[in-house]
Amino acid sequence: MRRHPLVLAVALVTTLAAATGYAGAKSTAVSAPRDVATVTVSRGAGGPAIQPGFLGLSLENTAIIPYAGSDPKAPDPVFLQLVRNLTPGQSPQLRIGGDSTDWAWYPVPGLTKPHGIRVTLTPRWLGVMHAVAADLSARLIMGIDLEADSRAVADGEASAFERQIGKPYVEALELGNEPNLYGSFTWYVLPNGIHVMGRPSSYDFSSFLDDFSSFAKGLPGPLAGPATGAPTWMPDTGQFLAAEPRIGVVTLHRYPVQTCFVAPSSPVYPTVANLLAPAATAGLADGIAAYVPLAHARHLPLRIDEINTDSCGAAPGVSNAFVSALWALDTLFEMARVGVDGVNIHTYPGATYQLFTFTHDRRWSASVAPEYYGLLMFAEAAPAGSRLIGTTITNAQGIQVWATRGRAGHTRVVLINESLDRRTVAVNATGDGTATLERLRAPRLTSTSGVTLGGQSFGTRTTTGLLAGRSGVARLTARQGRYEFTLPAESAALVTF
Q1: DSSP three-state, residue 343
Q2: pLDDT at 34
Q3: Which pLDDT score, from 0 to 100, does residue 28 have?
Q4: I need a surface site. Which of 97, 118, 193, 481 has the fewest CB within 10 A?
Q5: φ, ψ for residue 12 (rounded to 5)?
Q6: Cis amide bond preceding 226, omega within 30
Q7: What is the CA radius of gyration of the chain?
């Protein structure tokens, strides 16, 4: 979400056995006799399986028409394809909400529009939303306005979603968005200039829980929540779940850096170095690790259903640069490491971290941001049903390594080189077969264009939503039981065998 203070765990990285229940999920550095980064992949069964729809999107209500168009009979095919790319052969998980959750309403006859409402959900909007869900066979988490403090508004939205989008697609209703901010952020401004908050400054978790329970009575289930990323509220997740038996999806939010409220000298201000720091990847995941078993003990999935680089949505030169692709790739693996069941990357028109922009002049076309390429590599490296497996690596300076094993026995190894040095890498193999090598590259970490995945790209604009150009995927032959190749500076690679 754009507006909230940074939510960032300041915790030491947990041991792998404690965080995942199996040893060696993340790379462990050991000494080596020469300057070759050598990776050895565990032959163990690995950790929990990557769930279908693990990689999802979070969209503001205000993003639907700009992304999908205004014609329910012909939604933007380029947008639909870009969504499909991230979950091939699966039903994508879309969360619709963010800030606009508590700015929106569906007009109800006889009901006066609340002061804080600035987004009207029209029948056309609902028609487009239904068309998108039906075309993608999507699973939706739909935000319901809580800040308006009107049961009639909440019930009106829920009824419209149920009636015009449909139960096959609406997986859960998420009541409110980051309610920890209701008592401290302006909801609307009166004509005389007075700022009005959604709740009094004394509003706390107990107050929210009372609100949630009261409003939930009139809503069809299942529900999602608590939709917070506040370090002062997240420890109450267990209490929230104990009080709300109709919760079907546990939802939390995460952001690593922010431009609001901090000085440029702060370690959480968005810079290339700060975004690649362990606190912004491993630390971000470790901050929610304790809540995964709380959800799983109740047989509930836990999704980070809103996440991206900068919590304020405005970090040019970082959020819209290639560094965001490497951050996203590493962070998604970190979230899988601690047992999270899914992650929804937040995007909306106007955000620096927006994943794509669309135009319609006779036909639809899109401009695709660097971060999206990192999401694509993760989708290839961690397909549904695959499991994280342990690795060891020698001479690992500046390199992050992740590995998965798929249902068909394929092993996939991702190497992320955040350093300025070109490295030689050797991946130990179990035989003398062949492997494929796919690179994720850009001219530099600060590049906002020129990104390629496997030698291909979406170009300046794409009218298909598919990578194009000559493939640069290479074949590797194992020699003396290992695959050896170069890993350029500031790049990532995927080896599959």
Answers
A1: strand
A2: 62
A3: 47
A4: 193
A5: -70, 150
A6: yes
A7: 22
The answer to whether 325 touches 370, Cβ cutoff 8 Å, is yes
CA dihedral 311, 317, 318, 324 (to 10 degrees): 120
- 28 in Cβ contact with 39 (< 8 Å): no
Helix H or strand E segment including 126: helix 123-136
Whether residue 471 contacts residue 454, with contact meaning beta carbons closer than 8 Å, is answered with: yes
**Which residues, other chains included, contact 154 with Cβ-Cβ below 8 Å and sequence gap of 6+?**
144, 145, 146, 148, 175, 215, 218, 219
The reported pLDDT for the residue numbered 31 is: 41
Is it the case that residue 21 has pLDDT exceeding 60? no
pLDDT in tens, 202-241: 999 999 999 999 999 999 989 999 999 999 999 999 999 9
Cα distances (angstroms) measured from residue 66 to each of 70, 124, 348, 366: 8, 13, 9, 11
- Taking residues 423-430, what's their average pLDDT? 91
Check if the beta carbon of residue 425 is closer than 8 Å to that of residue 36. Answer: yes
**Encoded amino acid at 51, one letter:** Q
pLDDT per residue as tens digits for the range 436-452: 999 999 999 999 999 99
**Residue with more model confidence, 48 or 205:** 205
Encode 460-485: b = buried (16+ Cβ within 10 Å), e = exposed. Answer: eebeebebeeeeeeeebebeeebbeb
Distance CA 104, CA 94 (A): 18
DSSP, res 49: B
In whole angstroms, what is the distance from residue 203 CA to residue 233 CA? 12
CA distances from 376 to 56, 193, 328, 400, 439 (A): 12, 46, 10, 18, 12
- Distance, in Å, from the CA atom of 466 to the CA atom of 462, rounded to the nearest integer, reads 7
Per DSSP (E only), the strands in 146-206 are 170-175, 186-189, 195-197
Residue 431 is predicted with a pLDDT of 66
Q: Among residues 399, 446, 405, which one has the least CA distance to residue 423?
A: 399
Structure tokens of 456? 């291909």
pLDDT over 70, % of the chain: 93
Give which of 101, 139, 142 is closest to 118, Cα–Cα.
Answer: 101
Token pair listed for 274: 């700060």
Token pair 């609902």 in the structure block, residue: 126
**What are the pLDDT digits (tens) for 347-399?**
999 999 999 999 999 999 999 999 999 999 999 999 999 999 999 999 888 89
